[in-house]
Amino acid sequence: MASLKELRARIGSIKSTRKITSAMKMVAAAKLRRAQVSAEAARPYAAAMRRMLGELAAATKGEEGAPRLLAGTGQDKVHLLIPITSDRGLCGGFNSNVHRLTLQTIKKLQAEGKTVKLLPVGRRALNFFNREHADLIVDKVIGFSGKDVPFSVASDLGDKVNALLEAGEIDVCTLVFNKFQNAMTQTPACLQLVPMVMDETSVNTGAASVKAEDAAQYEFEPDEATLLAMLLPRNLQVQIYASLLETAAGENGARMTAMDNATRNAGRTIDSLSKVYNRTRQTNITNELIEIISGAQAV
Amino acid sequence: MPIQIEIISPEKVLVSREVDMVVMPGAEGDIAAMPERAPMMLLLRGGVVSLYENDTVTDRYFVGGGFADMTATRCTILADKAEPVSAISIDNATAALEALTEAWDKADKTDISRLDVLQDKILSVRAEIDAGSSSL
User: Fold this and answer.
1) Is A44 in contact with B9 (Cβ distance < 8 A)?
2) What highest taxon heads this organism's lineage (chain A) (predicted)?
3) Is A91 an annotated catalytic residue?
4) Preceding peptide of A44 cis, ω within 30°
5) What pTM did the predictor assign?
6) Average of per-residue pLDDT across A82-98
7) Which one of A42, A52, A214 has the shortest CB-CB distance to B10?
8) What is the mean pLDDT of residues B49-70?
9) CATH for B3-85, among 2.60.40.1120, 2.60.15.10, 1.10.15.40, 2.30.110.10?
10) Of the partner residues B8, B71, B76, the one whose CB lies closest to the CB of residue A213
């Protein structure tokens, strides 16, 4: 059995660990609020963007020579995967969920004979894939999470994807990130960016809302194709931005939950250690008493 | 009859209110959005969006390019970057202009699409500096 001194030291160190984890929980809760507010604030832009894209897609329907961002390269050989994680750990299974899903996807694609390239976002993903698939990494983006995510990160990343696509180096581009559901739950998900998956409802509602508002035809300046070509890269950036914001919110939510658990576990460990400590103390006293009494009886 | 104007940047909504007229910098020339206008979708260049109420300019915002969606009753501006003219930092803009000019000098002069993008950016930053210094 451990000595009293050792027990006291262990209890002391677990107490300070508990202080740290509970402070981290508070910080994560405050950051989560901020992240949720900025995710909220970014929504109108994405909504307006979707509406305009819907209107434009309806106007250009059936025309030849659709931009690559919309239609892809017409091939399905080279896949670019973009796993998005945080820069720092200590947030439970948040990052490893993304890693696992990405690995599964890589395996599946490679089994189908496709070439896979990786563009990890966030330090955790970069470190992980440097160990697992260093040969697949084409580029990286790190060092922004934990702060407010500026739009420029998303626009730079969007430009990179666009450049790769235009150069014909990739055919399909997919994001792997944690969808933020609430502070407790984040589920890893894949989102295909290129070729764009126009969900039918948004296209239809976009066109329908136009018809309802004014039966007249839209004017476009410059022409539809040019507008569409300008709007698509922007839409790519907006989608990336949205997933970055979700990651930021999810990271803090996951960290909050993880730290809450850690704080509770520390409390439990302290309780059981204290029990052992007290019991040891009592045993020692009893032993001493027995020694004294038996000494006195012997005289 | 007023028109509902919204200026939205990727980060947030800057303006959402009713005004009488909005003059915005279209890619091919300035355009005014007024009530009962035929619906139109417009590409914007970098420049100043002016909000008019009772024939006077009440607010001016700088937008660094983007898109506008006009209908008879509303006008939505999706700006790549937007801020009130009074908040423009000329120092930042000048630094950005210098960086862009350098990029232009280094750029491959046969790569037309890249040059186009750079040129748009340079024009946009120049418009920002103009707008910022005119408001002083």
Assistant:
1) no
2) Bacteria
3) yes
4) no
5) 0.82
6) 91
7) A42
8) 90
9) 2.60.15.10
10) B71
